[in-house]
Every structure is written in structure tokens, then in C-alpha cells.
Specification:
This protein is an alpha+beta fold and 264 residues long. It has 7 helices and 5 strands; from the N terminus they run ααααβαββαββα. 18% of the residues are buried.
Length: 264
């Protein structure tokens, strides 16, 4: 009888211990799940904030571009047209030149309107948006730029496009302002599982070993932006041979997905 009672007592204790362990494991799991959900929400907030800041930066850069183009390009064309009109008053044959200049001004204004109209920008693919930048560089004679691209295989996430475009925009701005380059070549390649963009200028470049601080041209900033969408950003440069950027973006892989998988 005593043995039976002892066995029941031991079994009861074991059952209690198992129940306590199960409750403890459940509480630990629940705490971990809540922690992961909190991390996910914080990551999402950080991502949305980064997207909003990037959109503001793109708009600011666009407004600066519009200002330069109005002053340095369209303004000069209209000034030339005014001079030509004055000349044509004494020589009507010169009116043809006036017509050509005004026609060119209208063409430039139409191109500029694409940058001003937010609905137009939203409807553009990444390649089309980059092409607009390239066309602007050539139009303003900042640099001789060219772009090559294959057809888009997979539709990119809108937010990923914003980040990628801003990274390239930063590289282009540094090329025009600091590299003293005469040529800029951009290649956009849509692969089956990833997008690879390579851009290179023929500017003065810099020695990455001797001058690591030169990475301040925005490399760390570009890389941090890339991490938001799991993109890898590499910049290579050599003194006298120019600077290049390679951006690799795996399709449909955002940083938040990893957290989703862990939670589930």
C-alpha cells in the first residue's frame, strides 16, 4: 500500500514538473514571439521612415535639377530666342532660327514636365527613371552618359525601386560634382533571381587603400540604404581610372521577411 502511495506521489510530482515545464516553455515561447513581433514592428517603422526620408531626398534633388535646368538650359534658350527676334526684325530670314530655338525650348519643357509631374514619375519603371536622369545629364551637357538594359523579368517592389534609384542618384551626383569625368556608363541587368546594376565613370578616381576616408563619397550611406532591401552595394575605384558601383538586389527579399518567417 505504501509503495502504491509512493508511486502515486512520485507520478503526481513528475506530472506537476512536466506541467510547470510546459507552462515555462510556453511563456518563454510567447515572450520570444512578442519580442520578435516588437522587433518586426520597429524594423517596419524604421523601414517606412527610411522610405519617407528617401522620397523627400529624391524630391529635393529633383527640384534642384529643375532649378538648374530652368536657369542653365531653358533660360539660355529663351534668352537666345529673344536675341534672335531682335535680329530678325531687320532680317526676316532669321525668323527660322527663332522658330528652331523656340521649338527646342518647348521640347526641353516637355522633358522637364516629366520630372515635375509626380504621377508620371510613379508610373515609370526603374529603368525608365534612370534613363530620365541619363537624358538630363546629356541635355545639360554635364557629362556624356549612356545606359544599356535588358527587359524587366520580375516586377520590382515599389519601395525597393525608390531605394535603388536614390542609391544610384547619389552615385551620379558624386560623379558629376567630384569625379571630373567625361563619361558615365550604366548597365541594368534583370536576371532570373536578381537585379544587377553596374555604373562606371572615367573620372579621377581615388586610392581605396591610401585614402579610406574617400569612402565618404557616400559609400557607407549607400550600403546602409542597400541593407534595408537586402541589396549589396560595392564601390570600387582606382586613381586615374575612375569609380564604379555595383548594386545587386535579390528579388522579393526584404529585411522584414526574415522576421516574418521566424515569428511564423
Amino acid at each position: 500500500m505504501e509503495r502504491q502511495q509512493a508511486a502515486i506521489l512520485i507520478a503526481s510530482m513528475i506530472l506537476v514538473v512536466i506541467i510547470i515545464l510546459m507552462i515555462s516553455l510556453f511563456l518563454i515561447f510567447q515572450k520570444r514571439k512578442n519580442s520578435l513581433l516588437l522587433q518586426q514592428k520597429e524594423a517596419e517603422k524604421k523601414f517606412e521612415k527610411a522610405i519617407a526620408e528617401t522620397q523627400i531626398e529624391i524630391r529635393e534633388e529633383t527640384l534642384r535639377n529643375i532649378s538648374w535646368e530652368l536657369h542653365d538650359n531653358i533660360g539660355q534658350l529663351l534668352t537666345l530666342a529673344k536675341i534672335q527676334v531682335n535680329v530678325a526684325q531687320d532680317d526676316p530670314k532669321k525668323l527660322e532660327e527663332v522658330t528652331e530655338t523656340i521649338t527646342k525650348s518647348l521640347t526641353e519643357l516637355r522633358s522637364l514636365s516629366k520630372l515635375i509631374n509626380p504621377d508620371t514619375i510613379k508610373s515609370l519603371s526603374l529603368t525608365e527613371a534612370i534613363t530620365l536622369e541619363i537624358e538630363r545629364f546629356n541635355r545639360m551637357q554635364f557629362i556624356k552618359a549612356a545606359i544599356t538594359s535588358n527587359e524587366e523579368i520580375d516586377v520590382l517592389d515599389d519601395k525597393a525601386e525608390i531605394i535603388i534609384f536614390r542609391i544610384l542618384q547619389e552615385f551620379f551626383t558624386n560623379t558629376i560634382k567630384h569625379s571630373k569625368a567625361s563619361n558615365l556608363d550604366v548597365d541594368v541587368h534583370y536576371g532570373t533571381d536578381k537585379l544587377v546594376i553596374h555604373a562606371k565613370d572615367n573620372g579621377v578616381g581615388f586610392d581605396q587603400i591610401e585614402c579610406p576616408t574617400k569612402r565618404g563619397i557616400g559609400l557607407s550611406n549607400m550600403q546602409n540604404r542597400g541593407k534595408l532591401i537586402d541589396a549589396v552595394v560595392q564601390i570600387t575605384s582606382q586613381k586615374g581610372t575612375g569609380t564604379a558601383i555595383t548594386l545587386t538586389y535579390p528579388y522579393k527579399k526584404e529585411s522584414s521577411m526574415a522576421l516574418d518567417n521566424e515569428v511564423n
